[in-house]
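Input record, target 12 of the design panel.
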């Protein structure tokens, strides 16, 4: 009996979800729509706020980092004879 319970325990949520989908009820659909609207309104507000700030940007740094730093370090050396 314990083996049957261990088998059915993970399957029950899947069967419940399939039953909802076959009945035409989509659980979580309203929550996803609300979340999408909230993200869309936040991104529109963020773009407007960025346009209002108009601070001058600092020039980008032109320093070698990571693999480029290693390449620059090795580039001054002559090839082995």
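The sequence produced for target 12 reads:
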């Amino acid at each position: 009996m314990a083996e049957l319970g261990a088998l059915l325990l993970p399957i029950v949520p899947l069967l419940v979800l399939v039953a909802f989908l076959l009945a035409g009820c989509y659980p979580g659909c309203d929550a996803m729509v609300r979340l999408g609207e909230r993200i869309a309104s936040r991104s529109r507000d963020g773009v407007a706020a960025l346009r209002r700030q108009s601070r001058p940007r600092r020039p980008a740094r032109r320093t070698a980092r990571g693999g480029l730093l290693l390449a620059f370090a090795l580039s001054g050396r002559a090839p082995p004879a």
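The chain has a mean pLDDT of 78.
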